[in-house]
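Long-time lurker. I teach an intro course on protein structure, and each term I like to show students one example going from raw sequence to a predicted 3D structure in token notation. This year I'd like something fresh instead of my usual example. Would anyone be willing to generate the tokens for the chain below so I can use it in lecture? Attribution to the forum is fine with me.
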Amino acid sequence: MWFTELKSGELECNVIVTFLLNVMELLSRRSPLIILPFFLWGTAMVVMKGVMPQTTPLFMAAMRLLPAGIALLLVAALLGKSQPKGWQAWGWIGLFAIADGTLFQGLLTEGLTRTGAGLGSLLIDSQPLSVAVMAAVFYGERISPRGRWGLGLGLGGIGLIGLPPQLWQSLWQRDWAAVQEIGAFHLGEWLMLGASLSMAVGMILIRPVSRWVDPIMATAWHMVLGSVPLLALSLLLEVEPYQHLSVWGWAGLGYMTILGSAIATAYFFSMPAGVA
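-- Reply from a regular --
Happy to contribute to a lecture. Here you go:
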């Protein structure tokens, strides 16, 4: 009796593992699904903005990481991924956790309290521009003339959308005193740009991290470790971070955690280099 149940449990586990492997193989191909992480990140920003009046920024940041990291650890175990071994592996994961976990999520949520979800998402998604420059500096990747034009157009587009119209008018009129008074960005926008830069550093770090640890396992642990400082700061500095969350608020946190963090981030960092 118990042997039959054990064999049945093993069969179900093998079916789950096979299904997960097939899904990851499908998502790794060149297809329209390569935009999936950006879609999930963008929609998560809108959900975050809606849930924010019911909670606090640092608690929300921690909740985007910790449950997602634990879920990914379970998935990685089902997929047979090995745990990190050695100080080099844990050292790189630690750097990855600080940049793409603690700093990125902390700056993101603090910035989102001071700016709109649309502009915030735009500023966050400017990180490919930073990644291209960093990859050229640190890894010697060549940026083609077409790529340089693309970087320029990207920066120009962010400026046109993100900078206040009064600033453009003052620049056109060469009113430098007004330009200085208006400023390029407010605090919220600067925090979002800092989050974008932190995420870009995380993307640059994934290459050395992957030499020592499987990308899915590294993603899982960097979420767990990156959430610890955020959760500690939330407990120390914030008042009633979760007491006012409604059912829809918890559902929003669930969307941000599972879809906006676990699935989007794991998929993005496990994509082949040619696709990502």
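Some talking points for your students: Residues 2-28 form the longest helix (27 residues). Confidence is low (pLDDT under 50) at residues 1-13.
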